[in-house]
Amino acid sequence: MTNEKAAELFREYRRTGDIKIRNELVENYMYVAEILAKKFAGRGVEYDDLLQVASEALISGVEKFDPDLGNQFTTYITPTITGIIRNYFRDYSRSVRLPRRVYALSAKVKSAVNDYYKDHGVKPTVKQIAEILGEDEESIIEAMESKAPVSLDAPVKEGDAMLYEVIADDNSSFEKFEDADALRTEIAKLDPTEQKVVKLRFIQGKSQSEAGKILGVSQMFVSRAERKIIAKLKEALLK
Asked: What are 104-146's pLDDT values in tens digits?
């Protein structure tokens, strides 16, 4: 369908409210929803769920779009769908809670670190925190490292960029996701074990201890692998 034909249908829909015309327009632009849903897939939310969110945003966009304002529909609808998908990720992330035991220990660790720093002027080691709280070191590390499943606001690099920052901004068209594609390309270059670590830690939000159990390795192995992966990705993406 040409842009001129689409504009005619939009005007007719605004004039008549004919659902058949709306559905024809939605079907014509469904590819935009599919592309955007695929771009955001693989981050802890199923593609089908993302497509449903994107499709609902597309329908709403078709109903609201005014072709006489001078914009092409794809230019209008791409940031609209992107924003709604981002909001969906944030809402999804907020709905997930850490296990009560980990959450409680995390609070104790923070308090112990603060108290130790006030008394000694330096932060305690993991071993010292474990001794103070009467916990094993692995539990302390788990509490310090635990995260909810990754949302678009979660760090993809240690203390650095957020996931949404490697996805095109609201002013970009749906074809332009160079940064996200670059990140996926670099992850694909990692060895199989490193790729599993990325999936478990940054996609599924597993703690280092949980990831280690799944992979059949120690928590320390996961920690070292994670640091190595982050260094590799930083070096590759900053070239």
From this structure: 788 888 888 888 888 888 888 888 999 999 988 888 887 776 5
Greater pLDDT, 78 or 177: 78
Cα separation, 165 vs 191, in Å, equals 25
Separation CA 126–CA 80 (nearest Å) = 45
Rounded to 10 deg, the angle between the 137-145 and 208-215 helix axes is 110
| ∠ Cα 47 53 94 (to 5°) | 85
How far apart (Å, rounded) are the C-alpha atoms in residues 199 and 44?
9
Give phi and psi for 167, each to the nearest 5. Answer: -110, 150
Which residues neighbour 34 within 8 Å (Cβ) at sequence distance 6 or greater?
Answer: 51, 54
Q: Is the dihedral of CA 78, 79, 84, 89 positive or negative?
A: positive
Radius of gyration of the chain, Cα coordinates, nearest whole angstrom: 23
Distance (Å) of CA 5 to CA 2, 65, 67, 132, 181: 5, 15, 11, 72, 33
Place of tokens 């692998």: 225
Question: Does residue 75 contact residue 173 with C-beta atoms inside 8 Å?
Answer: yes
For the whole model, what pTM was predicted? Answer: 0.42
Per-residue tokens: 171 = 């002013």
Residues 169-226 pLDDT 10s: 333 333 333 445 567 777 888 888 888 888 887 777 777 888 888 988 888 888 888 8
Least Cα distance to 2 among 89, 72, 102, 60 occurs for 72
Are 154 and 160 in contact, with CB atoms under 8 Å apart? no
